Amino acid sequence: MNKIITHIFFLLISVNVAFSQGNTALFKMADKAVAANNYDAAVIFYKAIINNVDSGRVDGELPYGVRSYTAPPKKKYNLITDEDSVLTDEKTKTDAITNKETIASTEDTSQKSVKLSPLGPQKLRALQKLHFCYYKLHSYDNAYTTAKNLFDHDAPNAGYYLARSLVLQGKYEEAITILDDYMITLELDSEQFKLSKKLVKQCRFGIKQLKKRKTAIINKLDSTINSKNGAFGAAFIGDNKILFSSAKPRAGYNEELVNSNLFTANINDKGDLEYILEYVPSINSIDQNEAAGCVSPDGNKLFFTRWNYDLEEPECAIYVCKNLNGQWLTPRKLSDNINIPGYRTMQPQYVSEYYDGRQINRLFFASDRPGGEGGLDIWYCVLDFQDNTKEVVNVGKVINTKGDEQCPFAHFLSESFYFSSNGHKGMGGLDVFNVTMAYGEFNGPVTNLGSPINSHGNDAYYVVSENKSITDGFISSDRDSCNDCGGRNCYQLYSFKHKSIVITITGIVTNGEDGEIIPNSLISFIDVTEKHAPVYVFTDENGEYKATLQRDVDYFASAQKKGFFKDAVALNTHNINVSTDLIQDFNFYLQEIPDGEILISGIEYDFNSATLRPRSKFILDTLVGFLELNDNIVIEINAHTDERGNSSYNKSLSERRAQSVVNYLITNGIEKARLVANGMGEDEPLVPNARTEADHQRNRRTAFKTLSQDYQPAEENKYIPENMKR
Known about the structure:
Blueprint: H1 8-18, H2 23-35, H3 39-54, H4 121-136, H5 140-152, H6 158-167, H7 172-183, H8 191-211, E1 216-220, E2 231-236, E3 241-246, E4 261-267, E5 273-278, E6 289-295, E7 301-307, E8 316-324, E9 327-328, E10 332-333, E11 345-355, E12 358-367, E13 377-383, E14 389-394, E15 405-411, E16 416-421, E17 431-438, E18 441-448, E19 459-464, E20 472-477, E21 492-498, E22 503-511, E23 522-527, E24 535-538, E25 544-549, E26 554-560, E27 564-565, E28 567-572, E29 580-582, E30 588-592, E31 598-599, H9 614-629, E32 634-640, H10 647-667, E33 675-681, H11 693-699, E34 701-708
Parallel strand pairs: 22-29, 22-30, 32-33
Antiparallel strand pairs: 1-21, 2-3, 3-4, 4-5, 6-7, 7-8, 8-9, 8-10, 11-12, 12-13, 13-14, 15-16, 16-17, 17-18, 19-20, 20-21, 22-25, 23-24, 23-26, 26-28, 27-30, 31-34, 32-34
Helix pairs in contact: 1-3, 2-3, 3-4, 4-5, 5-6, 6-7, 6-8, 7-8
């Protein structure tokens, strides 16, 4: 949601003051308002400066000197083919609780001089700052108008401003055209070039997403929820009620007071919201904003964000309110361990997790506190049962970037962690992403939820029910303009329902020796719990396969072809909440079955005995796994002796040794019908007439040979190797 005007009286005074001040004083007041995130007031001041200039009233000096500027030689950059230059994330800074993407000032600070514009230095700077304020207020039409004005008057970096405004209107192709012309004027190693190239990549990504098959249905809630001042930040209270934030008028208060407060709504059987009430009227203040809250699973704790736009002492902090015997106590600001003075701390999510029978309560939140990766980062801390906070931990670089990451939502049951970011590859503003969360660790890859969950605008506060289907939930977005918000794109609440999620897997089967493709190979996907039917596909003439899998299943996948040993991999489809094609690390490499023996290296027996030594059993365990995987083959175990000693005795000893191996394999679950013991004695030595001990050792060996590839195990004896189970 865009910034809510919370200081009506202050703004009225600002209007009167603005039109009675000189530009030097106005710049100081405007810049102070920007520093306090009070962009509404700043707009008034910057517009007053422009009005003064247009009326011929110019006084004072700008905070920087103005000299004539000569552009560097143009270096042509091809947006179609140049994909290899290094791109660094832009430095960003984010609004307060309204969680809007804020691009840092795009004035090229590497250039000491500024190109003169027909606008004149004071109007130029005021117009640039005005564009920035409109951008921060999500007044995208006004942001476009000011950017176009700058662009038409050849203002510095206006190409970037204009393209960024077009992206936020979903006009990707137009933005690329503007950037194409703008980037040829830039040095290839300049920061502005890198920012522009990142914007080009966002455009391409957005175009690609819009062409994809839509995997969800999304609907904007009606005006009962989305008042003229917007609504945002839904959070489930149980399964049939939500907490949300809105600037809708409060009962018994002046309707002109439009600060943000916390409300609830019931979810009826049709999924619609009804019976809207203030959640805890005593929490909602008159002169501050309350929003972005969450309720603990037991319903007795409310964590929320409270902030103001005071020019002298702005604050954005997390509070907690407890319910004692049915009465809500006075909200308490969390300690400085969480709320570091002078920094923004917001958007709490309280999660109770259970590991090894222990309950761990964690509070996730967003903050621009020191020690992060860039702008706003996501952090967490463990809370004890008195809500005392322990060490604050940054969730790390898997999630956090040099941009802004916010709106954390951890879904414990599905081991999924959702968040919004403008630092990862997205479609424009903030996009919603997902990553796996297990045992307190976050594992990539980070997945963009794509269109229609994400859009060209800012998309945030993605939530689903903790106990119901994770396919249904709510999101806040400013993708649509709001006629009642003074030309702004304020945050509004949307419901979503994911369509049937389709998970496909693709790969290729090749010869592990020479890399040749193997057509017509059988690929099997077996649910290790046997709850789902197996999936079978064959590779095509190019050795490629594609299969469709079920969600939330642990699979044992294998590839086989006559004349080859099998290859296998364990995989699972947990935490996949959008249609996905799994394409990495699912190729198979088959080894040809030789005509002769395969040596089982390291098999040793006690002297003059058929008793296997412990080390030999360890090696045979590997053979057990191999035979479990290749459950279609029958093998012959061949035991050999050296040529020394009596040949008949050597024959008998080798037979007993071969049988020892067979017995061990049977004891470990290999069917007897698949095994043949064969004592070779001193026949078929590897080194005939051996003379050295090393040669005798080579002749004393145990090996196996494949006799058949057509064995059909009984249904109860079909194997899933232990190391493939999860």
